[in-house]
Structures are given as structure tokens and as C-alpha cells.
Amino acid sequence: MTMNIQFRKPLILSSILAFFLSLQTVSVSAADLGGVLWRGATYATLAGLGYTNAFRTDSFRLSFGGYTEHDAFQIEANFRYDLDEALDITKNISIKPFLDVNYSSWQMTTGEGDTISLTNKGNAFGIAPGFRFEWPTVLFVFDFIDVRAGISLLAPTKLENKDGSVREFGGNFTFSEQFAIGGYFSDAKAWEWQLGIQHHSNHNIYEKNNGIEFYNLTFGYNY
Hints:
The protein is an alpha+beta fold. It has helices spanning about 5-25, 30-50; strands at about 60-65, 70-80, 85-90, 95-110, 115-135, 145-155, 160, 165-170, 175-185, 190-200, 210-220. Helix 1 runs antiparallel to helix 2 (about 30-50).
């Protein structure tokens, strides 16, 4: 399905804005410039994929996350495919399976005024099946719960915190789970929001197993 042009503009603009906002928090030196440019190219590519729906997905999401115990800020792009039509559990509650393909960028704070570094970073590419439990509500405040559980590949496998400590994930392979609540902005169910918590860890398959969590605010568009 082709996305109406009036809805495409705010989606791509929000993705590009996320990049330029991050630039405002980093002092770009000659050493940082390469990292800034390639990270900017990554965000621009994700924005373009969401704008054009090049992968012919059923929805596109952009998430912003953080966690008080970690020195990291997360930006995640989600490409979601609906696996089947929604099935009724009760008269008012339905369940719909989906497959989520995602890319996460973890930007670490530097410790100097808690600014964000575009060179000390992490990356996660994941795939996760999940389910949406949905029901009718008033004013579209709380319409559904999303749960998903899958696997991710991390690079690098260590992240340095601003206090000098090192978070070791053990290896490139990790499990990833997320729980989120959300709602729609209109009867058309085109735009939606979510609040969720996401966890990554290897479940002790490696000797080291320092997990990481993020609280996420997500905005999505259903094509």
C-alpha cells in the first residue's frame, strides 16, 4: 500500500531531526567527523526506507530510549510485517502476530557534561516475532499491548561507561525482549505511539553476561 504524501513528510522529517538533534550535543573534532558522517548516513538511510517503504512492510517505527543506570541513548528503527489477520480472543479483545526487523544505534555519553558521543557507540540488528493484543478504547489513549522476543547481533561486544567501567556483553549474539503499551491517534489507525521497556542479554550462554535495558518512546506509521 502506498503511503499518502502528507503522512510521509513528518515521518522522514522526524528521523532526520533525530540526527541533527544529536549533532547539537557533540563537539565535532577532526577525529569525530568520520563517525558523525557515517552515523548521519545511517539515520538518513533509515529515514529514506521508512519514507519510501522500500521493503514493503506493514508499518515503520522510530524509537527513542534511555535508562537511568546506563550511559547510553538508543535510537531504533523497526520494520514490521503482519503475519496474519487478527484473531478474536473475546468479543472485544483480538490478537495479531507480527515479525519485527530492527536496527538500534546506541550512543554513549562521554562524561563531559553528559554530552552524547557519536564515535563511542553500539549497534544491534535484530529480528523478533511478537503479538499485539488490541481492544477498543475511548479517545485512543490505551488501545493495545505489544510483546516480542527474538535475537540480535551486537557490535561491538563491549561498551565503555563514562565512569571508565566496561560493560561486557560476552559475545555478538544476544536475546532481546520488549513489552510495550500504546494507542492510536485516530480511527484510521495510521499513526500510533508506544511506551515500552526493552532488554538485551545473552541468558548466560557466554561467560560474560552484562545486559542492557532501555525505556522507549515510539512513534509509528501503519501503511
